[in-house]
Specification:
Layout lengths: L1 E6 H5 L5 E3 L11 H16 L5 E10 L7 E6 L1 H20 L9 H10 L12 E2 L2 H9 L12 H14 L5 H9 L1 E8 L6 H7 L9 H10 L4 H18 L4 H13 L8 H12 L3 H20 L5 H13 L5 H14 L3 H21 L6 H15 L6 H11 L9 H10 L7 H13 L8 H6 L4 E4 L7 H7 L3 H8 L6 E4 L10 H6 L13 H4 L6 H18 L15 E4 L11 E6 L2 E4 L3 H15 L1 H9 L8 E2 L6 E5 L2 E4 L4 H14 L7 E5 L8
Parallel strand pairs: 2-4, 2-5, 3-6
Antiparallel strand pairs: 1-6, 3-4, 7-8, 9-15, 10-11, 10-15, 12-14, 13-14
Helix pairs in contact: 2-6, 2-7, 3-4, 3-6, 9-11, 9-12, 10-13, 11-12, 11-15, 13-15, 14-16, 15-17, 16-18, 16-19, 17-18, 19-26, 27-28, 27-29
């Protein structure tokens, strides 16, 4: 490795050197604000008469397998591309006569020294070669603006520089002088001695931080020969990026959840991915083939484009609910469906089951903290009990209806109470859109796009009984109007969709009914009962409430199955579940994704505390020394009911199961561990032995 400070223009001034951005690099990501900062810095260089301005480092390596004149840019592509765009804007403006220079050869100097090599064949004349999509946009800038790709950062940043130069803050000569003042640390690598990948991972450049997806692309492609990089990029990686809408980091997190049955944290995606590939010794092309397959599933889920109209309609509804936590499960099921020729009808039933599970929980306010674990392991659990003569969906239904606590699927009684009493008006917009879309359209083939019409403001949520009661409304509701108002104002029975002007909202019911676009003229099914009424009192509210609940039981019917496993399935709960473990017998547990056996709650409790002690002994030692120690069941002295965890660290175990669980929850908070990291398997129909 050789590093030296030099002006950027000297780095770029190679008479026959072409600068290649390897395909494992991220796309050009600089935004307008980055370009604005650069231009402001260049302006200050001139105003303050500075001789130099540090512009970060550029790491490069000669492409020894190709032409000797090719230089691969390992780090610094964002800055080199940006300066090339700035230079190109200057050249085009000079050619167009929109700006001038006192240096008669400035245009030719910039163009033939830093942008083009006029002696190379046409396909290699442009000195900078960005990666595929960026390259297409970059090349178009050398032609007419009619061909510009305005969706590209390359184009937008070029136009920013073009227009800002036109503003005349700096002359062409001043701008060139300022760019000549930019100094870089030129780090050239020896391809025989230096590990480019390790260097790339450790760099912390002045540009934008690398995303987890950027690091993964680098890891997958960097170690390959340049021709292999191009082949794998074009055949797989570029397609993966496009299929995932360039949300590669999110996609890889879902992909890892599928293959590992656990969800990595956002900051750990790259490290977990790297460990997965290296530990399993997966060949690059095999890995990319698998990732591309799942990227196709991801696209079908996100865009609801499976090709089956019924399935796509349900997918769209799930997307409105935005339950992205279920995406890994759906990807796994779609792969299973493809391998084993699952019918579209069964797949649709799986989606409907998930939709019911998600929505019933939403209405009943069931905590969502357990869903990551549930969905990450759900497909694996289904396969565990799936037999040839049993439909996959029946196993799924059995597993979901068997869950308790924060993983439960609310039964009809809980669901109807939640639907009647929930403050629907305060729900998130996307959830309200979903709810009213389902009530309006049901499973009808004729479909009104309620979601889109609510998004653009054509339809709005209307309180039939208004939020502010006029005198006439109070009289109509009767002597107990306040009680009726407080009970029903934001409940589902009092809410609907309208397209009339909001100025009608506070008018008497009969006026709202007969107004232009009022309830009487409404073509929405959800307003049919309201349109038949001549008044709106608690009597009508109760009637509509019952009608909507009756319809809800059909739209989100509780799933049923006759499937029963040969061996009873133990319940699985997590430390942060809303579940009472009292009176239950533990079968086993999982801590940080590693399974352990346990014959009693006391055994599990001691083992987990010892694991915590191994993770960070200082936390527990501090508790032992402080007065709060006994509050966490610790003491530094041996005593009745205590067991030794470590020298001078004793844990009180002669406590109830509830007390043990409560203390573990407090300890997990101190250790900043998620409660889902401790899974507890409970034996069915057994009594606690503690």
């Amino acid at each position: 490795m050789n590093g030296q400070a030099k002006p950027l223009v000297k780095f770029l001034d190679g008479s026959d050197t072409r600068f290649i951005i390897p395909v494992y690099q991220r796309n050009y990501d600089w935004k307008i604000e980055n370009c604005r900062q650069l231009y402001d810095d260049l302006k200050k260089v001139i105003e303050n008469e500075r001789e130099s301005h540090f512009f970060g480092s550029v790491v490069s390596v000669a492409n020894t397998k190709g032409a000797s004149s090719e230089m691969l840019i390992i780090d610094g592509q964002q800055r080199i591309t940006t300066i090339s765009l700035l230079f190109l804007a200057v050249v085009n403006l000079l050619k167009e006569g929109k700006i001038t220079s006192e240096k008669p050869n400035l245009c030719e100097k910039i163009e033939n020294t830093y942008l083009l090599d006029p002696y190379q064949p046409e396909e290699k004349k442009v000195k900078l070669k960005p990666i595929k999509d960026d390259q297409d946009a970059f090349l178009k800038l050398f032609d007419t603006d009619e061909e510009y790709n305005h969706a590209s950062n390359v184009t937008q940043n070029y136009l920013y520089f073009y227009n800002r130069i036109l503003d005349g803050e700096l002359t062409a000569d001043e701008l060139f002088t300022a760019v000549c003042s930019l100094v870089i640390i030129d780090i050239s690598l020896d391809p025989q001695k230096d590990d480019a990948q390790l260097i790339f991972e450790s760099l912390n450049s002045t540009g934008l931080d690398l995303s987890e997806g950027d690091k993964i692309r680098n890891f997958v492609l960097m170690g390959k020969e340049p021709d292999k990089q191009e082949q794998f990029y074009n055949k797989y990686w570029n397609k993966i990026e496009k299929d995932t809408g360039y949300e590669v980091s999110d996609f890889v997190r879902y992909y890892l959840t599928v293959v590992l049955s656990k969800t990595p944290t956002i900051k750990e995606i790259y490290s977990v991915f790297k460990e997965y590939v290296e530990k399993n010794k997966i060949e690059t092309e095999v890995l990319l083939q698998d990732m591309l397959k799942y990227a196709r599933y991801y696209k079908q889920i996100r865009n609801a484009v499976t090709g089956n109209a019924k399935v796509d309609l349900i997918m769209k509804r799930l997307n409105v609910l935005d339950m992205s936590v279920s995406i890994p499960y759906l990807m796994a099921v779609m792969d299973y469906k493809e391998k084993y020729s699952m019918s579209e009808d069964e797949f649709a039933k799986i989606l409907i089951t998930l939709e019911t599970y998600i929505f019933r929980r939403l209405i009943c306010g069931v905590p969502t903290n357990a869903l990551n674990k549930i969905f990450s392991m759900l497909h694996r659990d289904c396969l565990k009990y799936k037999k040839d003569d049993v439909a996959y969906v029946d196993v799924l239904i059995y597993l979901l209806v068997s869950k308790a606590g924060s993983g439960r699927l609310p039964k009809d009684s809980e669901f109807l109470i939640g639907l009647e009493e929930k403050n629907i008006y305060s729900m998130q917009s996307k959830n309200k859109m979903y709810l009213f879309d389902r009530f309006e359209n049901g499973d009808s083939v004729e479909h009104t796009n309620v979601v889109e019409l609510m998004e653009d403001g054509t339809y709005t949520i209307e309180h039939v009984m208004p939020q502010t009661l006029s005198v006439s409304w109070k009289e109509a509701l009767g002597a107990n109007y306040q009680e009726v108002y407080d009970k029903w104002i934001n409940r589902l029975a009092n809410l609907t969709l309208t397209g009339y002007n909001s100025q009608y909202s506070n008018r008497a019911f009969i006026d709202k009914k007969n107004a232009e676009k009022g309830f009487k003229d409404s073509h929405l099914h959800i307003n049919s009962m309201i349109a038949e009424c001549n008044e709106w009192t608690e009597k009508e509210l109760i009637k509509r409430n019952n009608l909507l609940k009756e319809k809800a039981l059909k739209l989100w019917a509780y799933p049923e199955t006759n499937f029963e496993p040969a061996v009873a399935i133990n319940e699985k709960h997590y430390l942060d579940d809303d579940f009472d473990f009292t009176g239950r017998k533990i079968a086993s547990y999982t801590f940080l994704d590693t399974p352990y056996s346990a014959d009693s709650w006391s055994e599990m409790y001691q083992q987990v505390v010892r694991f915590l002690f191994e993770l960070d002994s200082t936390i527990i030692y501090k508790l032992v020394k402080e007065e709060t120690g006994l509050g966490y069941h610790f003491s530094e002295k041996e005593s009745s009911g205590f067991v030794e965890i470590a020298p001078k660290v004793y844990l009180y175990v002669a406590s109830s199961t509830r007390s043990k669980i409560g203390n573990l929850r407090r300890l997990f908070e101190l250790y900043q561990l998620d409660g889902s990291e401790l899974g507890l398997e409970i034996q069915n129909n057994t009594e606690n032995d503690d």
